[in-house]
Amino acid sequence: MPAFVYLLLPILFWSGNYVLGRMTVSTGIDPYTISFLRWSLACLILLPFAYKKLYQERHIIRQYWPLLILFGWLGICNYNLFLYIGLTSTTVTNAVLLNSIMPVMILITARILLGNTTNWRQNTGIIISTMGAIIIVSRGSLDTFSHLSISKGDLWILTAAVSWAIYSVMIIRRPKDMSLIGFFTCTALIGTCIQAPLFLLFGETALSELTHANWGSIIYMGIFASIGAFLCWNIGIQKLGAATAGHFIHLLPVFSISLSVIFLGERLFSFHYVGILLIFTGIFVATVLNNKKPQSTTN
User: Fold this and answer.
1) For the stretch 76-98, what's the b/e string if a residue is b when 16 or more beta carbons lie within 10 angstroms of its beta carbon?
2) Which end of the chain is more exposed for a tag (fewer CB within 10 A), N or C?
């Protein structure tokens, strides 16, 4: 299989997660049930392959357990649960566009948490992308802010994005001696355990109420959007490098919006186009343009 396919598949899997998440919550299934069942299934599939690694690396887990809990809380519990909560009251289009400012949000988070400095190009990109996000959240009207009529779903999506940005910045502190499959399985188990009491307290859907379509969506989320995307993404990074992989992330809105238009009948409005233009311009300035070094001229 061509190397680039390993990076395209996760984007397609994650795009499907947005659309199926929206379809599932729209049938009345609460987000706590969806997220908990998704990751419970993923853990059940992972454990037979990873339990030996977890046992071999138990001393690393004991040593770094506070950090592993943080990763499980931010990356597995918060991000996914907040995403599904957001999808109960916002569109896939809004959700994926607000998530697309992630590269810029990671720059801001790295500056706050790690003291990383940003140059004028990155700061310009941050401002432009933020303006795009504001236009989408406000539906292109400042009256939205004056009347405090911002969609709660959009705010949940932004909170999920913040959680993932912190996770992405802190991942540099991941235990170096811990295998990738061991780390992923451990944080997945921790994140699922954190979700368990939330599921018991706030989950309103009885398992008997889930239809075949609901179970199909949850199985897809557990296998493809969780495990399949993780494995393919890491293989793709090994084959083509992290810098190339980062550019493939920008295809997520394209795939997700296309699927939402086809399967959910969602529409793009003028403020979406303006927001898209500003967000991707900001990302281009802050990442791609910033990484281009000026070439020296020769006579």
Assistant:
1) bbbbbbbbbbbbbebbbbbbbbb
2) C
What's the pLDDT tens digit per position in 38-76? 999 999 999 999 999 999 999 999 999 999 999 999 999
Angle 267-271-272 from CA coordinates, rounded to 5°? 50
The structure tokens 């292109």 sit at: 140
pLDDT, tens only, 171-195: 888 898 999 999 999 999 999 999 9
Query: Angle formed by the axes of helices 5-26 and 92-99, to 10°?
Result: 140
Amino acid in position 63: Q
Chain-centroid distance, C-alpha 122: 22
DSSP annotation string for 30-65: -HHHHHHHHHHHHHHHHHHHHHHHHHHTHHHHHHTH
